[in-house]
Amino acid sequence: MNYFDPHIHMISRTTDDYERMYEAGIVGVIEPAFWQGQTRTSIGTFIDYFDSLIGWERFRAKQFGIHHFCTMGLNPKEANDAILADEVLALLPRYLQKEGVVAVGEIGYDDITEQEHYVLCSQLELAKNHNLPVLVHTPHRDKIGGTKRTIAAIREVGIEESLVVIDHLNELTLPLVMETDCWRGHSVYPNTKMSESRMVSLLQEYGTEKMIVNSAADWGKSDPLKVPKTGSKMRESGFTEADIERVLFNNPIDFFAQSGRISRDQVLQPINIDQTKTYQENSALRGQKPVISNV
Amino acid sequence: MRILRDEIGEQNSLLLTQLPEINAVWFEKENQTLINLATSQIKNDRLATEWANISAQVGVQLRDIDIPVCTPELQIPSWTAVELVRWQLMANVLRVLPELERRVFFVQCLRYADDNEKQALVKGLCLVDPEGCCLDIVLNLCRTNNRDLFASIAIENTWPSEHFSDLEFEQMLLKSLFLGLNINLVVGIKHRHSPRMSQLAFDYLSELALACRDWPPSIYTSINIAHLTVEQIQRLEMLPEQIKWSLSDSIMAH
Questions:
Q1: Could you tell me the CA-to-CA distances from A210 to A25, A73, A101, A177, B84 in Å, in that order?
Q2: What is the pLDDT of residues A244-261, one digit of tens each?
Q3: Contact A38, A249 (CB under 8 A)
Q4: For residue A106, is the peptide bond before it cis, meaning its omega torsion is within 30 degrees of 0?
Q5: What letter does residue A284 receive in the DSSP assignment?
Q6: How many CB atoms lie within 10 A of CB A291?
Q7: CB contact (8 A) between residue A111 and residue B178
Q8: What mean pLDDT comes out for the span A174-198?
């Protein structure tokens, strides 16, 4: 079984994670642009970070047999610095045209301020103009209010709902999104978001259509194997292999395929791993024997 | 930016009686250095830098001090000696600066401060900003993920209840719950309580309960069952029994 994790912050994960993910069957990932644990203070740090998402990190994933795509955007945690936010918004169009950038994201609300609303709507407009799908993060606090406001913002801007995945849903917010054409994202993340068993319960109750599961693994205490672990849980609970493939491979790829920059065939294409290669003369190895596999 | 000059002065006098002599001498010397700079009309940026340099030394000078700091004016029971000295040094400068320069200096101190130093500065807001000139700055600070820094604003601090709007106070309360703080220690929670606060807190309680996670016991302080919506009352039936009982008990408290 091949798996796809459409929301994982690999920049904060080690090569051990890449190896374990590959062994567990994860053949592709999408890495949304994110905050770094504390707010950035200048535009240069965004440029360097965005460049790494389409450069070094894409290379590093490939060195371990995993297809890497990303989304670009200004996350809500960093949206409240108005001057810096405008600089990032002006920078984004350049990156939204890059190969491997499959959506605008992850955007949304954090404290649900007017400034965050402005930044969210501006990026929804960018997505519209670039014909790209959108990955939206729902806030940690006032989740229900934030989800309602997110849906309202999507309708206010007028982007097609089917081009939007609203992520980090739970038992209380999923029903709100089910009333729209938006896709339904769920993060299986220890303690603070979903668990495998709760995810299975939601799938049993609401079905598999437009349902997406990810690990959202980042620099916190999280698990990059939550997607295959959810697959195991689904299997134990009586879901068919076709159901598992639908939720944990087809759905996420089909959603982001609306960008025209990713497809199931592309992700299923095995990568010829060649760890002798370098990126800007930098290798992901530190003295280990390089792996070369011809598939 | 108006300040409460007399109260700051009284706090300074009290501090000097509480510090061990060697530390009191050091404090008075550094304090005078800052006062001299402030009255010499140097640029605020340099003055704030000097405060930051001295503030960093406070951590070293008072590292082993474990004195029960008494702050009757500030009415905050949870100061450390290091925090109080840092704050007092900044507040004493404000006393000698022209009113129009105070906010700039305070903002720059915050800019140069690390999180521990920021905690010290915001704890004493009630004396250095009784009129709420720094609302935008404090709201921005509330966005921190540093639990201790957030707590220095939200917990046992009179300033937010006096200057935050209803929405801002509600968000602060919600974040306090989210960070696992004891909201019984949020000043003004009773007189600032609103129906929306009850609804937000109940939604958060519901999420935790449905995820089989623990919730902070103090959450019931923020929920008045009479404020819940029809949908929330219906949802209450899906939640553990203990929640219904606890909310019934909280009616008595409200």
A1: 22, 23, 21, 11, 55
A2: 999 999 999 999 999 999
A3: no
A4: yes
A5: S
A6: 14
A7: no
A8: 95
Q: Give me the helices (H) in A247-289, please.
A: 251-256, 264-268
Please list, in sequence order, all residues whose beta carbon lies within 8 angstroms of the beta carbon of residue A109, skipping any fewer than 6 positions away. Answer: A76, A116, A117, A120, A137, A138, A139, A146, A149, A150
Q: Which of B204, B211, B213 has the CB atom closest to A141's CB atom?
A: B204
Using an 8 Å Cβ cutoff, are A131 and A99 in contact? no
CB contacts, 8 Å: B171 with chain A: 111-112, 141-142
For β-strands A134-137 and A101-108, DSSP reports them as parallel
Residue from B206, B208, B228 whose CB has the most chain A CBs within 10 Å, to mutate: B206
Asked if pLDDT for residue A225 goes beyond 60, the answer is yes
pTM of the entire predicted model: 0.88
Q: Do B210 and A172 touch (CB under 8 A)?
A: yes
Beta strand extents in B13-134 (DSSP E only): none
Residue A179 with chain B: CB contacts under 8 Å? none
Using a CB-CB cut-off of 8 Å, the residues of chain A touching B210 are: 170-172
Calculate the average pLDDT of chain A: 95
- Which two tokens mark A120? 């969210």
> Amino acid identity, residue B66?
D
- Three-state DSSP class for residue A135: strand
CB atoms A142 and B175 under 8 Å: no
pLDDT band at B59 (very low <50, low <70, confident <90, very high): confident
d(CA A101, CA A149): 26
CB distance A56 to A278 below 8 Å: no
Q: How far apart are CA A116 and CA A76, in angstroms?
A: 6
Q: What is the mean pLDDT of residues B103-122?
A: 93
SS3 state of residue A266: helix
In angstroms, the CA B118 to CA A238 distance is 54
DSSP-assigned letter for residue B152: H
**DSSP alpha helix (H) spans, A131-219:** 143-157, 174-178, 196-206
Q: Rounded to whole angstroms, how far apart are CA atoms B149 and B219?
A: 21
**Confidence tier at B91 by pLDDT (50, 70, 90):** very high
For position B67, what pLDDT does the model report? 63
Distance from CA of B198 to the nearest CA of A (A): 12
Digit-coded pLDDT (tens) for B162-182? 999 999 999 999 999 999 999
Amino acid at B225: I
